[in-house]
User: What shape does this take?
Amino acid sequence: MFYVMEVGTRTVHILGVTARPTSAWATQLARNLLADLGERAPGFRYLLSDRDSRYTHAFDAVFTADGIEILKSAPQTPRLNAHAERFIRTARAESTNRLLIYNEQHLRHVLAEYARHYNCGRPHRALHLRAPAHDPDVIHFPAQRIQRHDVHGGLIHEYRNTA
Assistant: This one.
């Protein structure tokens, strides 16, 4: 799985899944990310990555061309990218460890659905129990009725107002 997390908002972008990642694949996903971000891309200043051999000069050049500085983590320092490690642990505990994944296509579907839940419905302590996609300008009226909505085939439950 190849993903990017915006640390300030905790928004996760699942970019791709493959059993055999290559440097060309990672470089193309970097281009795709910047194209998807569009007007928001200049707002990013840093990309923190580990020292994997897939992150070549071509991969770095995609980001540096947009003025994003590449910061490489020091060898054997897992705490340096703690936000990324925490997302992996959360995704495994809440999703993939509870499912039998059939193939790559099924994994893509599961991760896309989980990313939607993570970005739109899952509360985060660092965000004062709001989801990353939470709009602070929206004022919710008191609920007349709360309805449970199952995500991931019932593995995760979200609750919404049905007033």
Notes: The chain has a mean pLDDT of 87. The chain has one domain: 2-137. The chain is about 35% helix and 20% strand. The first helix runs from residue 23 to 37.
